[in-house]
Every structure is written in C-alpha cells, then in structure tokens.
Design brief:
Elements: H1 12-28, H2 36-44, H3 55-110, H4 113-122, H5 149-153, H6 155-174
Length: about 180
C-alpha cells in the first residue's frame, strides 16, 4: 500500500506553453475598436496600465479599516458594560423592592389597633371624635373607574406586549 499522492500527474509545463500560445495568437488579431490612446500605447510596445491603488493608498485603507474596527470594538465594549451595569442595578432594585414589600407586610402584621388606641389614650391623651366632629363627604360615582381583568390581561394586550418585546429585542440586537 502506498502513502503517496493519488492525484493525476499532469505535465504543467505543457499547459503553460498552450496558454502562452493562445495569448500570442489572440494578440495577432486586431483588437476591438478602442480610443486612440490605447492604440498608440499598443503600437509603441507599452501595455495599457491598469487602474491600481498605490502602496500608500493600500496602507491608508488598512489604517482606516483598523481604526474603524477599533472604534466599533470600543463602542461594543462600552455598551456591554453599560448593559451589565443596568442589569445589576435592576437586580438590586428588585431585591430592594422585595425587601421593602416584606418589611411593609411585617409592619402591617405587627400593628395592633387596640394597642395603638391604648397608647393614644394613655400616653398622648387622645380620645375618640364626637358625632358633631365627624364630617361626611358625598362623592359622585363619576370619579371612580373600573377595569376588568380582561382589559388588563386580555389576549390583545398579551399580543401587543409580545410584539413590542420582539421589536425591542431586534433593536437591541442590531444596535451598538
């Protein structure tokens, strides 16, 4: 068993000579109509010059691309740092919110109305209001609103929230 190359062996020199012959035969025929400048160049033996970018131009292009890439990377890093800071701040806020709600619940549980009334009457010298001191207000029904669970949690609201979150995720993904 051989471990060599299994590719066909071509004579590469023959292919080069065939290509050169084709090039030489195509030059013998008159070229398509071109402007006078290109004909004069061919007659003098000079090849028409291709539009190439100079070495300095290539270096300038590389420098511009490198600077723009560095700028984009810096912006991406700043955005990611800002987003991570925002996420940590949101976590801290949610934690503090839960602690606050827990403390308010504990405070409500610890409040005993009879204890408060006893403290108000003994230490502060307060007493309950008399009948003539009580004022009643008549509030019209137009000042109140009613919202049902369907209005708040309905299918249309869920679809709107889903669409808005989809759009915001797309914007977040493509923005820097």
């Amino acid at each position: 068993m051989t471990y060599g190359n299994l590719a066909y062996k071509y004579d590469y020199m023959d292919e080069k000579t065939v290509k050169e012959k084709k090039r030489n035969t195509s030059v013998k025929y008159a070229p398509a109509k071109k402007n006078n400048k290109s004909r004069k160049r061919l007659k003098r033996g000079k090849k028409p010059r291709k539009q190439e970018i100079s070495y300095l131009g290539k270096v300038a292009c590389v420098i511009v691309l490198a600077v723009s890439a560095i700028f984009m990377i810096i912006q991406f890093v700043e955005v990611n740092e800002t987003q991570s800071g925002l996420a940590s701040a949101k976590k801290q806020y949610n934690f503090e919110l839960s602690v606050t709600s827990q403390k308010s619940f504990e405070l409500e549980q610890s409040i005993d109305l009879s204890k408060i009334e006893k403290e108000a009457t003994t230490r502060l010298g307060m007493r309950r209001p008399e009948r003539y001191q009580t004022i009643y207000l008549d509030v019209k029904r137009d000042d109140t609103t009613e919202r049902t669970a369907d209005e708040v949690e309905g299918l249309s609201n869920r679809a709107a929230k889903l669409f808005n979150s989809f759009i915001s995720n797309i914007v977040d993904f493509f923005s820097i």
